[in-house]
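Take just one protein record:
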Amino acid sequence: MSNAPAPSKGLADVIVADTVKSKVDGQNGRLYYLGYRIEDLAENATFEEVAYLLLNNRLPNKSELEAFTASIANQAAVEPDVINIMKQLPKNAHPMAVLQAVVAILGMLDPEAASSTPEANMNKAVRLIAKTPTVVAAWARIREGLEPVAPRTDLGLAANFVYMFKDRQPTETEIDAINVYLVLLADHGFNASTFTSRVVTGTDADVHSAVASAIGALKGPKHGGANEAAMKMFFEIGEPENVENWFKSEVKEKGRKIMGIGHRVYKAPDPRAAILKVRAKALAESSGNRKWYDIAEKLESLARADEYFQERALYANVDYYSSIVLYTIGIEPDMMTPLFAMSRMAGWTAHIMEQWADNRLIRPKANYVGEIDKPWVPLSDR
């Protein structure tokens, strides 16, 4: 038998690097960006402010924030050639596949494509943060046979996204909900997509390649795709009065998981979920349609009262109520993960630059468990 150490599946509890970007305290249900509590950031900060914080390791002053916000707004437009390429893509393509492809194209067109200096990487980060909402909103319209709406330079990122997505002036409730959503999901430790971006960066690959790889990781239903799966689950339940029977038949009798409840790290309530629950309720009431919120709240209450969920410390996570927030605004389930990517673009690019600052190829070992010294068998004898 081999004396090799047992592998840590999923790299559980393996420390691979130091970071100042965010701290996830799963035991106590706490999340910090650069030492700031997520509750304080969600209550007080714009997404641009949080993006600046993650990229620069400090909060901006008034003039810095104004300049940074203007820079994002002024770089939000996407080249007409890119829009024309998007119009040629299959209308049934998954939005995350489209976003991944377009990020690669933006990398080819980037004016500093060949440079990986700290200054060039910062410029690429800002351009990606600026253009991603435009790409996401454009694809939502293109696939419906509608013309994309160009971004405005007088709107913040959250307001601009809703404007481009709906082709109308956004309400304050919508702006607040999208801004808070973006703040809450901007970074979250060494999650799968962020780690992917750092692994790719470890090869000295460019920013766009690392981000495109991160998008591929985020697409998976065990990561960013969970909000899409949660909303489809609410669709399946259909009405608030169906929740109890669904919980009994699907969860208790069939052992089915509740999408959006439980987290790999949190063994206490996810602090982001409580904040989004408030926004989900406000949107439900302002829209006059409480059905989806009522389904989610009733299902969460049943789970929290159930011994199985209590013993395993399974709580609603960020995907659970974010799906209600986004759907109430009018975002279809398969468009939800691209909005996650809009937010996480700030975290990805911040981690990419942190990796570049002390870069080394990430090359873990594996235990080989196959046979050795097998005799070669000629093709005629196989």
The two ends are 29 Å apart (CA to CA). Residues 40-174+186-219+335-357 form a domain with the Citrate Synthase; domain 1 fold (CATH 1.10.580.10). The first strand starts at residue 22 and ends at 25.
